[in-house]
Amino acid sequence: MRIEQQQHARIFVIDDEASNLKLIDRMLRGQGYQNLILIDDSREVLVQYQVARPDLILLDINMPHLDGYEVLSQLRALDDPLLPPVVVLTAQHTKDYLLRALASGARDFISKPFDRNELLMRVRNLLDAHLAHRLVYDQKSILQSLVQEQTEELYHTRLQVVQRLGMAAEYRDEETGNHILRMSHTCALLAKQIGWDPVQCDLILNASPMHDIGKIAIPDAILLKPGRFEPDEWAIMKSHATVGARLLEGDDSDLMCMARDIALTHHEKWDGSGYPSGLAGDAIPMSGRIAALSDVFDALTSVRPYKKAWSVEAAVDLIEENAGKHFDPALVEVFMRELPTIIEIRNRYAE
Ligand code: C2E
Ligand code: SIN
Ligand code: SIN
Ligand code: FE
Ligand code: FE
After folding, report:
1. Domain spanning 2-144 has what CATH number?
2. Fewest CB atoms within 10 Å of the CB: 140, 222, 291, 299?
């Protein structure tokens, strides 16, 4: 490692004997090390560590109050992924003594009385290794936070695009964009009640606003027609499901996949009489079944260019009658049980 970086490294020297501190200080300064922190009371080590994280620690073992082993275990308890190497300063060389220091987390030893060359070599080698480790660690965490930032940004951008697309589709045949708010919150509520996890519930909340995105391609003369459709008009209107799915193709994010499923299947019916594919029962994705129920309830109780708003009672009657015909009967059951909350959502996002 570059000499310059070495010389700026912070080194703790911990020894209760002032003469030892002075000696090491002189030897290291003589080699150009400038950031030495001398500590003669081992009870101060932790505080100093928080103030200025060292790159290397030289540690005496036999000290009053807190001995070197206790300092080592305090340091380990910090759980610092960048804990610097600790070198034990010792006059003893019994095997037990050395093993215990190693087991406590010491990296190496320097014998007393100090040999200048041994001290300098140990310090240089251990600092080298630690500074390299720190460099790699810093780069890794910078990378990690960059990746996370970009992932979050992408998610939020996509969400914005998705919600605005949904609003754009609804603005033409509705007074406000509130239909998609009521519809999507009802979807998330039903999903939660059938046991979807929070991530999936969040997905359907954000994917369902695009169910009618295909209406963008329907001419005003048809979409806004106050009366009933001729057969050719009806055929064009029904194309909004496949057109919507095509618009949402080509992005394999979970959000877009679910949005596409919903656009494509929100007019399928449980008994197979829906469009565009005539799917029945379990062949209809659950997300599409949930969207169908939430969409029809809200469409019925809202004003449209071709119809007045139904009362909640009339809408609920139609839904109950259609359990097992238009709608998944198990979902209708959940819908009935959750009706008070669904009405609450309706009121919260009223026109
Ligand atoms: P939408 O207005 O958002 O309605 C969504 C779904 O709610 C309808 O899907 C239907 O299942 C249900 N729904 C809405 N109003 C009524 C109603 O008065 N009676 C009954 N029984 N169900 C109702 P659907 O039928 O596949 O229609 C899809 C879209 O086609 C509708 O979306 C709407 O934009 C358009 N549409 C349907 N019928 C007419 C119509 O007679 N005139 C015009 N201008 N548009 C229509
Ligand atoms: C879930 O995992 O909670 C259900 C997901 C799904 O059906 O798409
Ligand atoms: C979906 O919910 O998007 C599809 C999962 C299923 O088939 O239920
Ligand atoms: Fe639709
Ligand atoms: Fe709708």
Report:
1. 3.40.50.2300
2. 140
Q: Which of 95, 112, 215, 325 is catalytic?
A: 215
- Neighbour count for residue 340 (Cβ, 10 Å): 7
151-205 tens-digit pLDDT:
887 777 777 777 777 777 777 777 667 888 899 999 999 999 999 999 999 999 9
What DSSP letter does each residue of 203-253 carry, written as one string?
HHHHHGGGTTGGGGGS-HHHHT-SSPPPHHHHHHHHTHHHHHHHHTTT--S
Name the CATH superfamily for 171-348.
Hypothetical protein af1432 (1.10.3210.10)
According to CATH, where is 1.10.3210.10 located in the chain? 171-348
| pLDDT tens digits for range 56-100 | 999 999 999 999 999 999 999 998 888 999 999 988 777 788 888
Torsional class of 195: left (φ above 0), alpha (ψ -120 to 50), beta (otherwise): left
- Ligand 1 centroid–CA 132 distance in Å is 67
Q: Which residues contact 298 (CB under 8 A, 6 or more apart)?
A: 179, 182, 183, 186, 346
Closest listed ligand to the CA of 286: 3
Q: Is the pTM of this model over 0.90?
A: no
The DSSP bridge partners found for residue 90 are: 111
User: Strand order in 108-111's β-sheet?
Assistant: 35-39, 10-14, 56-60, 86-90, 108-111
Whether residue 252 has pLDDT greater than 80:
no
Domain(s) of CATH 3.40.50.2300: residues in the chain: 2-144
